[in-house]
Task: structure prediction
Amino acid sequence: MKAFITGGTGFIGKSVVRHLLQHEYEMYVLTRSSRNYTNQSSLTNIDGSLNDLDRLSEILKEIQPEVLIHLAWEDLPDYSFHTSRKNLDYGINLFSIAARSGCSTIVATGSCWEYLDNNSKVSEGSTLSSLNSFAAAKNSLRLMGKAISSEHGCKFYWLRLFYVYGPFQKRTSLIPSVINSIHKGHIPLIHNPYNSNDFIYVDDVARAIKSLIDKQPEKATYNIGSGNLTSIEEIINVIYQLSGKEIDPQIAKMFENNKLLDSEGFYADISRINSETGWKPEFSIIKGIRTYYDHFTNAYEN
Result:
């Protein structure tokens, strides 16, 4: 099966590409630099950009992929109106071109921040937010994707991703920054020590995407998370244990004070994708962080 992917050189995209190649997909990766991937027989780097519509039309007309996987969202963490509007336009144009080229399945990624409620379990039918440009743009792209796909008779799947982590993630994100600090003997800088979040390992996201492509369920929108809340304290403790070091007294005192406060966070109801495709996470938070920690330390030492 031919699959065309944007954002394939990002940390989620790399996992998706690797996973689909293992299952005999023929992958075409849109990239500004063909050096991002080593050429393989089932992988083709496509030089191009989302702002070059003529080039995109030529590419998709020539390749005629059965599947489009749209992961790209440029310039994060800039959540401004200008950036959100730009990415919304890119996505709408890409969906239109792909649908006209005969693509039968479109998969695109949204965000858990589309939801208004950030302190409870949320299902796909929970109230959505219109409080910022990023959430509004994501919601708008989902609606336009559904409409475009319906007009052209193709399937459309929108995945609301929760807190994805794993190899090649930005070093400034929570888990890699804590691993890096402890590895260097520094005290980790923790911005929101009292929060709890729904952390999902990147390989589980890749498996979810494949399950939707393979199973072709009828719904359009799916939560992709662990279905559980994990506290920042638990994350830090797991990383310290893996490092073989005692937790820093300042960190321990901070979390002792945390016990006097109510932990806040929201997490995914993943019953829809589980019931319709059989997908469920394979990585517990301990297994996921251990896998990431091993990857990080191997890369650091080499």
Q: What stands out?
A: The chain has two domains: 2-162+202-224, 164-198+228-266+283-301. Residues 164-198+228-266+283-301 form a domain with the UDP-galactose 4-epimerase; domain 1 fold (CATH 3.90.25.10).
